[in-house]
Amino acid sequence: MLMSRIARILFLMGVLIVSGVLSCSNVAGGGKKLSEISLQNGKKLVEANDSDLSKQEKQRIQQIAEKLAVRYVNNRNPDQVKIPEEIISFFYNGLIHLKKSTIPEAKKVTDEYVLIAKTPANPREVLLWADKSASWLDAWRNGETKTGVSEIDQLIEEFGLTLSEYREFTTTSPGAFASMEADHAINVYAVGDAFMSLEEIKKAGPDGLLTGGRDVKAKIKDNYLVLDITVGSGDCPAGCINKINQKFRIFSDGQVELVD
């Protein structure tokens, strides 16, 4: 069973301290500004037929595709917030082609197990931490997205965020956090960096997710997509007792090949 949200958030507090220190230079404008990332050379996969999948299954695969797209963009341009739909669609079609493949190894990892992509936990959500003694937090306590602090509200509006949750803790510092969500995938790492540049925000970034090593990783090659799948079962928060790793190539025509 995955850790509860609160436990994961407490765990994440330490992670955000490190990640904020490592990545805040991207916001400060000290590095070379990169051009917007998109799929190179118009790479595409033939559209996969997902008509026989349930709404829940489509949503789950969509979220994995969004996670892969966030990683793809962030690894190439950590400042870019926009996640192009063409990149999400590329990964979504690749995952559906894998799901529909008749290769026994593909059937095993997609049908016998549940595909899970580790990070970011939610490609549409950013957690913002603040000192709970700050008077402007009354807005979030009352369920209002805008705080009255112009710098914070400007970023909230720029990134299309809405308050989805607010909590306070008595035994941790800074003690208060808000979950902010967009209605589409965003580079949650870049958004977190932007908020970290504000004095009022003490920590910011995506939520954490403990999967016991289970993950979906992707690499885009010249002629195909590689999906590196790790699935498992049995006490997965502690590392999974049973774990399987398989790699697949998905070609532009939707054909799937097992990587030996």
Gyration radius, rounded: 19 Å
Q: Tell me the total number of β-strands.
A: 8
Note the gap between the termini.
Answer: 31 Å
How much of the sequence lies in strands comes to: 15-25%
Structural class: alpha+beta
Main sheet: strand order: 2-3-1-4
**Count of alpha/pi helices:** 8
Helix content: 25-40%
Main sheet makeup: 4 strands, antiparallel
**Low confidence ranges:** 10-32
Element-by-element helix/strand order: HHHHHEHHEEHEEEEE
Write down the overall mean pLDDT. 85
Principal-axis shape = globular
What would your notes on this structure say?
This protein has 260 residues and is an alpha+beta fold. Helices cover 35% and strands 21% of the residues. The protein is built from 8 helices and 8 strands, in the order αααααβααββαβββββ. The strands form 2 sheets. It has a 4-stranded antiparallel sheet with strand order 2-3-1-4. Strands 5-6-7-8 form a 4-stranded antiparallel sheet. It is globular, with a radius of gyration of 19 Å. The chain starts with a helix and ends with a strand.
Q: How are the elements arranged and paired?
A:
Layout: H1 5-23, H2 25-28, H3 55-76, H4 85-100, H5 104-112, E1 125-131, H6 138-141, H7 150-158, E2 162-168, E3 175-181, H8 188-196, E4 203-205, E5 215-220, E6 224-233, E7 242-251, E8 256-259
Antiparallel strand pairs: 1-3, 1-4, 2-3, 5-6, 6-7, 7-8
Q: What attributes characterize this protein structure?
A:
260 residues, four-stranded antiparallel sheet, 35% helix, 8 strands, globular, single chain, alpha+beta
